[in-house]
Amino acid sequence: MSFKSEYNHTIDPKGRLVIPTKFRPGLGNSFVITKGIDKCLYFYPVDAWEEMEDKLAKIPLTNKAGRTFARFMIGGAAEVDMDAQGRILLPAYLREYAEIIKDTVMIGMVNHVELWAKELRDAASEDVDINEIAESLDGLGI
Fold first, then answer.
1. Which residues, 6+ apart, have CB-to-CB distance to 30 below 8 Å?
2. How far is Cα 3 from Cα 21, in angstroms, rounded to an integer?
3. Which residues are bridge partners to 114 per DSSP?
4. pTM for the whole thing?
5. Distances from the Cα of 51 to the Cαs of 55, 81, 89, in angstroms?
6. What residues does 44 pair with on adjacent strands?
7. Distance between CA 126 and CA 58 in Å, rounded?
8. How far apart are CA 36 and CA 64, in angstroms?
9. DSSP-assigned beta bridge partners for residue 140
């Protein structure tokens, strides 16, 4: 399954988040959440997370940047279970890392989902010149 689109949701006072209906089949009843780059969180289906772990395990222990990145991704990970209403309990340390208090934005990113605090997502999008970015990616065949 490919994740796409963007959804706005809120975290309830107990730290629960409703997963958009379109994302539920791809994520499954249990999935992995970890710290993401840019102060967001990444949601991975178990099989995609296992692929990520395999890649991280292949980084030589002598590579300092690799160790640091693996520690960030794996050390920040938590497996969560979705309840019958499609909600998960977002661990407090992940909410704190991503500065999530109430309003969120969930973005499908093909093989995973990003969860942002709405304020941080709005700020990150504010000064983006998509034309300039698209031109810089020309060599990638996009």
1. 46, 79, 80, 81, 82
2. 12
3. 42, 107
4. 0.92
5. 6, 20, 24
6. 32
7. 37
8. 19
9. none
pLDDT above 90: percentage of residues in the chain: 84
Q: What is the pLDDT of residues 92-140, one digit of tens each?
A: 999 999 999 999 999 999 999 999 999 999 988 887 888 888 888 877 7
The residue type of 93 is: Y
List, as one string, the DSSP characters of 11-67. B-TTSEEEPPTTTHHHH-SEEEEEE-GGG-EEEEEHHHHHHHHHHHHTS-TT-HHHH
Average pLDDT, the chain: 94
pLDDT at 30 over 90: yes
State whether residue 142 is helix, strand or coil.
coil
86 burial via Cβ count (<10 Å: 0-12, 13-18, 19+): middle
